[in-house]
Design brief:
This protein is 33% helix and 21% strand. The N terminus is likely disordered. Helix 3 packs antiparallel against helix 4, helix 4 runs antiparallel to helix 6 and helix 6 packs antiparallel against helix 7. The chain has a five-stranded antiparallel β-sheet, with helices on one face. Strands 6-8-7-10-11 form a five-stranded mixed β-sheet. The protein has a two-stranded antiparallel ribbon with strand order 9-12. The chain has two domains: 110 residues, no CATH class; 187 residues, Glutaredoxin (3-Layer(aba) Sandwich), CATH 3.40.30.10. It is α+β, with helices and mostly antiparallel strands.
């Protein structure tokens, strides 16, 4: 029997003055608009009393106090029969401006308890939903572990992630892995990211190595492409010049390359973005390591743990961990501390979001 659904619940007592502030509570509002719940029953619901509605709304706001802005509207809907004995299904709509999300809860028959209800379909494997045909590959094309990164050439966190992957980590894993980039430019905040993705694909259509050197150079020196950020045209000119130089270096068909660069057909880029959206990608970088999601510029140790787990699951022994050498800290600085970094923070670890 195949496992199709997993269930996540959090029980909230509907006391009049009970406050919940667990930081582990899942954030109820996503930054992107979401469709209504797929589990909405067809039958008419039963209305709640105004008092029970008030208590449910107050409890939800208290429980999610660390992640739910005060300006978010919380609309508690009617109760419907559920598949869980002793509980009814409840839809709570959270909205702010154009952003809107429906969250499912269960309310006990006596109205004293609320359950955060999250029904997750675990049947689809993300890797089967990602189209890798024609994408440039780094590493062993037949490797049992595939790392897919939804990447934005202009994103500083993607630059950090790229530098973590290449060249050292990729070299350590050798032919055990393959790495593939998918386009996910956040063009609302990164004006030349789509242009860079199109140029990269123009190179990839003729030469795998030209694509990766283009990716290396842009990720390593985004500020050079940015210039003084006063002119998008200057940035795109720099991108076109780099693509042309690499095309000459790798002896690609120059006419074909220039036609592709000038046309700037972003159809494939938009298809990649739509693919990422279906997978729930909302920020860059977002990686899938044999299906396991990694968001943000993860530190090397954390990324190694994910890759090693995927390798063992595929029956491949991971490479030995490198020995850490003790480094002498500068005078007045504790070992392991980063100068000018606030306590508890990791530089460039958060993903860039839309």
């Amino acid at each position: 029997m195949s496992l199709r659904y997993s269930y996540a619940v959090a029980i909230l007592a509907l006391g009049a003055s009970v406050a919940f502030t667990q930081s582990s509570a899942p954030a109820p509002v996503a930054p992107k608009a979401a469709p209504p719940s797929a589990s909405t029953p067809a039958a008419a619901g039963q209305p709640l009393s105004p008092e029970l509605k008030r208590r449910i709304e107050n409890t939800i706001r208290s429980y999610y106090s660390e992640s739910l802005p005060l300006g978010v509207d919380v609309a508690v809907g009617e109760r419907y029969p559920s598949e869980i004995p002793g509980f009814d299904l409840l839809h709570v709509v959270m909205s702010q401006g154009e952003k809107r999300r429906t969250n499912d809860f269960l309310v006990s028959k006596d109205g004293n308890n609320l359950v955060r209800w999250l029904k997750i379909d675990v049947t689809p494997d993300p890797m089967t939903q990602i189209d890798l045909k024609g994408r440039a590959v780094r590493g062993n094309k037949d490797a049992k572990v595939t790392i897919v990164s939804f990447d934005d050439f202009e994103c500083p966190y993607c630059s950090k992630m790229h530098q973590t992957l290449f060249p050292e980590l990729a070299k350590k894993y050798g032919d055990r892995i393959r790495i593939i980039y998918k386009d996910y430019p956040l063009d609302q905040i990164h004006p030349w990211a789509t242009h860079a993705a199109v140029n990269a694909n123009c190179l990839a259509a003729q030469n795998n190595d030209a694509y990766w050197e283009y990716a290396d150079q842009i990720h390593d020196d985004q500020k050079k492409i940015d210039g003084d950020r006063t002119s998008k045209a200057k940035s795109t000119d720099a991108l076109d010049k780099l693509a042309t130089q690499l095309g000459n270096k790798y002896f690609v068909n120059a006419t074909q390359l220039q036609q592709c660069i000038q046309k700037q057909d972003a159809t494939a880029v938009r298809a990649s973005i739509a693919e990422g959206d279906k997978l729930g990608v909302e920020a860059t970088p977002t990686l899938f390591v044999n299906g396991e999601r990694v968001e943000g510029a993860a530190p090397e140790d954390a990324l190694r743990a994910v890759i090693d787990r995927a390798l063992r699951s595929a029956g491949v022994e991971p490479p030995p961990k490198p020995e850490k050498s003790a480094e002498k800290a500068p005078a007045g600085e504790k070992p392991g501390a980063k100068a000018n970094a606030p306590a508890g923070t990791t530089e460039a670890s958060a993903p860039a979001k839309k």
